[in-house]
Glutamate decarboxylase (Amycolatopsis australiensis), 462 residues
Amino acid sequence: MVLHQGKADRPGRVGGTNPLYGGANPALAASLVPPHDRLSDDPLPPDTALQLVRDELMLDGNARLNLATFVTTWMEPQARELMAECVDKNMIDKDEYPQTAELERRCVNILADLWHAPDPADIMGCSTTGSSEACMLAGMALKRRWSKLGRTGKPNLVMGVNVQVCWEKFCEYWEVEPRLVPMEGDRYHLSAEEAVARCDENTIGVVAILGSTFDGSYEPVAEIAAALDELAGRTGWDIPMHVDGASGAMVAPFLDPDLVWDFRLPRVASINTSGHKYGLVYPGVGWVVWRDQAALPAELVFNVNYLGGDMPTFALNFSRPGAEVAAQYYTFVRLGREGFRAVQQASRDVALHLSSGIAELGPFSLLTRGDQLPVFAFTTRPDAGFDVFDVSRRLRERGWLVPAYTFPENRTDLAVLRIVVRNGFTHDLADLLLADLQRLLPDLEEFGGHPKDTAKATAFHH
């Protein structure tokens, strides 16, 4: 017997005896090869199909040990049950699923309150598939507001080189010049001085990040806003700000309530966050909120007659499941302010414990500690005898996924490891990681240090 497997035909295994696959039909076991390039001719029993796919997915990394991702990897069983019940609901069909639409509205209002919107009755906002879509929508609003000023030059957007790639995509897709502020020395993100120096009458906005993915640090939103206020007084250029709070907008309200970064600053026009990051929801849901209706030009909001109902919509996607929105509302109901504070504080405590433990090991130097986002970056000392790529590779052998990568323009000489602490990553797991690091050090010191191409060695994208 010859079976089609991928791009080559290989001899099949005849006479399957494994009841997990063969069941009452042993001959079926001989043909259990999932399709690679074309559909098979016949269907399989559901349990058999499930097992085939599950077997292949075992080759993925363990999500709970993935310290590279910001995305939520654990939710309560009750949340999983709720999501399973809602996965067939189309979020865009607000006429057929009016209560799911109501939960979305409530989530937007809760976020506007967390972010100190001046008039809750005047805000605009919506759910998205994640922060990338939310950022695109915010950028579109900034560009449309600028276009109404009658300027004739090419629009530009000012931001740090540490922005998430979605902002570079936005600039390419919507023909906006990206003015990226490079890193310099020990400055790893945007500063007020560098931001203002790149603004002109064609600047549609300045993007500040509350929680840089490179090192977990907050950008100085209030300082940038004050510098833009001063610039407006001198030049008349009234340049709005967008705060990319993909992670920090769900951390700062609970752990840093006195930090002024949100709609308390009149220059902040819009804010986004990822519900599937420190919003504690499985992927993918994001949120974007505008401080008032004037910040979101009305012509960008479409009224659609869909399945008998007239509804406003502002999104790049149309159909998508309502499960994540229901799960976001569940977390708000379940935790409240104090619950969110406790969860985020626990993550920060673990991050500080882990970063201090790594610093005490000797060969490592911290760039950040995890005292803003529960995220920190560290590198190897010059005399360590090995580099961050050696460490990342050896940790992977134990199941830990810790990214190693070089910093961007002007600091490509700096390569770091970054650890993201999320809900579900406990002190016990942190101690196990520290023990593994300590156990690996003698081997790293003896066998590390081989020259390598860092461009090829980089295993993760931030």
The chain is about 35% helix and 15% strand. Residues 362 and 383 are 10 Å apart (CA to CA). The two ends are 47 Å apart (CA to CA). Confidence is low (pLDDT under 50) at residues 1-17.
